[in-house]
Amino acid sequence: MTTPTHDTFAELAAAYALGALDRDERQQFEQHLDTCTICQREVAELRRVTAGIGMTADPVAPPESLKARTIAKATAQSSPGRTVSNPQASLRARPAAARRITPGWLLAAASLAAAIGSGVYAWSLRSQLTQMQETMAELSERANTLRNNLDEARRESSRLSRVMEIVQAPGTIQVSLTGTAAAPSAIGRAAFNPGRGMVVSAERLPALRPGREYQLWMIVQGQALSAGLFTVSADGAVTFVATLPTNLLLSSTAAVTIGVTEEPEGGSPGPNLPILLAGVMTRR
Amino acid sequence: MTEADRQLIRAVAAGSSEALGRLYDRHAAVVFGLARRILVRVEDAEEVVQDVFAQVWRDAGRYVPERATVAGWIIMLTRTRAIDRLRARKARPDQSQGTDPSLVAPLPAVGRDPEQVAVSEEDGRQVRRALEGLPPEQRMLVDLAYFEGLTQSEIAERTGVPLGTVKTRVRAAMATLRSVLAS
Questions:
Q1: Mean pLDDT, consecutive 10-residue segments, chain B of 183 residues?
Q2: Residues 6+ apart with CB under 8 A from A227
Q3: How far is CA B82 from CA A140, B23, B51, B102, B126, in A?
Q4: C-alpha B83: how far from chain center
């Protein structure tokens, strides 16, 4: 079912699709790929994954002026692969044929007019079609925007109801969070409910550098437990439901420090100082 | 969305610059966002936007709708162009003249024919969810390879994780991401 070398190469397919093979390995794999339909299918499937990864980067609106520059530059190139049909050519051909089969200049003129007329008619049909296509494109675009807005609203509403549920539950403890010297203007608040979870909201946290995330910690008796990762809006604000550490055991008297650090994307096993925002939760 | 894109691509292939403008309106933010994520510097990301739409203009006639959504195609173009630029920049960080071509490491290819990828917006949503569920050490590898264009050996060097472990984790991560698309 496979060539003798197939198994060795099959292991490389994932890294190949991700673009992570070193040059030698990549060249060897590509040679194999030329002859192996199993690996070709495998790679095609894996490339759906890599395209999906690209779609996870957050869209950012480019500067206004970029559009004009981009379109001008793109359309200034010649495009050798493009075939443009030439309606003038067929318009010219048809009257010539008509003149040959109908004697007399009047008839010829009449059929010429008819031919031009049908050409004009074809043109007007074509432009109507283009217009309809544009309208359809527009409509389906609008429907899609609405659908996205609705999805977004649903997600936001389920998140908010989770937030409200925790904040309003009986027995929820409010904790103020204050910015440290590393983020003096940051402020925040945590609402902790032992049975339901914790909501943290913060404002004026510093903007994150690319590849970085904020990580929330619960520090109990000297041990820091991760309570989730988050990013902030452009003005440094966030409200999110923390992921309470599964191994969080609270005695009724222990003080818990809640702290936020900046970490590499994906988080760290332990906090990297400095702590930017912190507060202490004490319970009666 | 997808059908509207396809109509626009056909119009671009027929030479409509207005259709190219529409495609730009629909996809430029995704292109710019991905390019910025990879290159960080705004000017570089703008160059990538220009490169990508220039290529869309040139190659619209070769686009095969059965094999890729327009969005998927544009994303693959963006990633390839951006990593290309990132590698070139690393090879000459001061932008000085006289680039030695041997310094520019070859692009660790996404593939010979990266445009032809069957991918949908739904794939993007599913991959995003699956990425968030990956163990952090696997997610980091995926990020370093996809968004920073590092090869497995470069990742091992950069992170201090043994190469064998890097390879195992890349396979595991891709298998997980793939399984969510298959279901």
A1: 83 90 93 92 93 93 75 88 88 47 37 44 80 89 91 90 93 91 69
A2: A198, A216, A217, A218, A242, A243, A244, A245, A258
A3: 30, 19, 9, 19, 24
A4: 8
The amino acid at residue B11 is: A
Q: Is the pLDDT of residue A164 over 90?
A: no
Task: Answer for the pair B68, B115: CB distance below 8 angstroms, yes or no.
Answer: yes
Question: What does the alpha-carbon distance between residue B4 and residue B10 come to, in Å, rounded to a whole number?
Answer: 10
Q: Is B82 touching A (CB cutoff 8 A)?
A: no
Contacts of A144 in chain B (CB under 8 A): 1, 4
> Concatenated DSSP letters for B87-152?
HHHHHSTT--S---GGGSPPP--S-SSTT-----HHHHHHHHHHHHHS-HHHHHHHHHHHHH---H
pLDDT digits (tens, 9 = 90+) for A196-234: 888 898 989 998 988 899 999 998 888 888 999 999 888
Can the peptide bond before residue A274 be classed as cis, meaning omega within 30 degrees of 0?
yes
Closest Cα in chain A to B109 = A19
CB-CB neighbours of B168 under 10 Å: 13
Return d(Cα B108, Cα B126) in angstroms, integer: 25
Are residues B8 and A137, on separate chains, in Cβ contact within 8 Å? Answer: yes
> What pLDDT, on a 0 to 100 scale, did the predictor assign at position A109?
60
What is the enclosing helix (H) or strand (E) of A214? strand A212-220
Contact B131 A22 (CB under 8 A): no
Contact yes or no for B123 and A141 at CB 8 A: no
pLDDT tens figures, A250-284: 665 678 889 999 999 989 998 998 999 999 887 65
Among the listed residues A236, A223, A171, the one whose alpha carbon sits nearest the alpha carbon of residue A197:
A171
Which ranges of chain A would DSSP assign to H, the alpha helix?
6-10, 13-18, 23-35, 37-54, 66-76, 87-101, 105-168
Tell which of A50, A126, A144, A155 to mutate to test the B interface (max B CBs under 10 Å): A50
Give tens-digit pLDDT for A96-142: 443 444 455 556 566 666 666 666 666 666 666 777 777 777 777 77
